[in-house]
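Let us practice reading a record.
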Amino acid sequence: MSDTLTPPPPADAPARLTPRGARAWRTPGGRVSLLVRPRTLLVGLALVAVTLAALVVSVAVGDYEIPLPAVPGALLGYGERLDVFFVQGVRLPRALTAIGVGAALGIAGAVFQSLSRNALGSPDIIGFTSGAATGAVAAILLLGAGRLVVSLGAITGGLVTAAVVYLLAMKNGVQGYRLVLVGIGVSAMLSSVRDYLMTRADLTDALGAQIWMIGSLNGRGWSETAAVWIGLAVLAPVILAVGQRLRFLELGEDTARGLGVDARSTQIIALAAASALTGAAIAVAGPIGFVALAAPQLARRLARTGGTTLVGSALMGAALLSVADLVALRLMAPTQLPVGVVTAVIGGTYLIWLLYTEWRGGRA
């Protein structure tokens, strides 16, 4: 190995391919640079196309069919009155809610898997979903609360669970396997609390809470759409701001500290923001399972990248939940299935496949 340092290229040097096929672009002043991987870009565009296609089909199909050529006009408020009513008042907010919830769960899942350095480290597995759901159920059954208080209960439950799991798992830093094991234990205890609350509630309240706990987008309107997208607008930039530090943490805390990363503050910020994002998604749609588990892994495998893929996970989560909701709408029409049933089938199949590949690779 040579001791001679290679000088950096000038700021106005033309872009060139990196060994992995990525292309680095710089502004003429060199103040802004961007690394573009063609495969990642193509996968992202494909996921956007799938999501948009699912949105268009979702607003067009139903008991009242709307011709596809009439959909753009109805979106803008033109055309037949019933077309405009069903598109703008019923189907579009549900479709946009599905996209927002899917993106939120995808980002949260990527953060948890990055912090735990474990493919199973999603909020479904390690208790954060249970914490948010328990907070929401407590608000429903004990307070008889409206949607705002239920939302606050879900976010509070997720944050409190995150704090408990983090403190219990912390010993000379947070190790991935310890975070997962502690999270599974806390999740089991929270499930017991939730079941106890259900047994003490009135039949009508318990039935409503049980339907909510399956995870559903039925009847979601513009207020739910606004809630989840406001949560994304506030919390996603916080997570993206620490995204590069999360990549360093995946190399190990000692390595990250050697690169100048404050491991403790990064973990706390990412954990709090991802927990709040999980709570916001659950408050709107209930505890929809497996999207947070599958989306980050599928995004990484399709793009063939290592480490955290926050944007890719968000796009994959949005595409998964949009397609799953479309299936829930039309699979047994005119009966509408809760979307949580569809994601459980898809996610359960994916989990079995993931465990099988881990076992075949000697990692489980």
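A brief commentary: The chain is about 70% helix and 0% strand.
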